[in-house]
TrEMBL record:
GO terms for biological process: superoxide metabolic process. It comes from the Eukaryota. Residues 100-115 have a biased composition (Basic and acidic residues). InterPro entries: SOD-like_Cu/Zn_dom_sf, SOD_Cu/Zn_/chaperone, SOD_Cu/Zn_BS, SOD_Cu_Zn_dom. It comes from Jaculus jaculus (Lesser Egyptian jerboa). This is Superoxide dismutase copper/zinc binding domain-containing protein. SUPFAM superfamilies: Cu,Zn superoxide dismutase-like. Residues 57-81, 100-119 are annotated as: Disordered. Signal peptide: none annotated. One of its GO terms (molecular function) is copper ion binding. It holds the Pfam family Sod_Cu. Residues 15-102 form the Superoxide dismutase copper/zinc binding domain.
Length: 133
């Protein structure tokens, strides 16, 4: 059985995009998509706790972290489930996957905020992940 989902991303400015999710049986979740309107460089990508976007991206809560772990790299044992690392936007502002304002220091920044958010800064776009057919 294959489960599919999609997240349409919208920001306050020009940032927008769509991310597709797919999981076959008990395999890993595979993500792909495109985000436009970004500044060139690295941007953090995370799944957050809530699908509440009543206050834009401010009301989505912390990173999805059901096991109460510290922020880390996607392949680290100690990481939030929602920590998906960084993606890079090229000169024309297009990235394959990215949501947040700054590069994620992957929990290695040496301060308390690093272990919570990776020091990524404000959110540029957000959306709700919904199951598709």
């Amino acid at each position: 059985m294959t489960t599919k989902a999609v997240c349409v991303l919208k920001g306050n400015g020009l940032v927008q995009g769509a991310i597709q999710f797919e999981q076959k049986a008990n395999g890993p979740v595979v993500l792909w998509g495109c985000i436009t309107g970004l500044t060139e460089g690295q941007h953090g990508f995370h799944v957050h706790q809530f699908g509440d976007n009543t206050q834009g991206c401010k009301s989505v809560g912390p990173h999805f972290n059901p096991q109460s772990k510290k922020h880390g790299k996607p392949k680290d044992q100690e990481r939030h489930v929602g920590d998906l690392g960084n993606v890079t936007a090229v000169k024309d502002g297009v990235a394959n996957v990215s949501i947040e304002d700054k590069a994620d220091d992957l929990g290695k920044g040496g301060n308390e905020e690093s272990t919570k958010t990776g020091n990524v800064g404000s959110r540029l776009a957000c959306g709700v992940i919904g199951i598709t057919q």
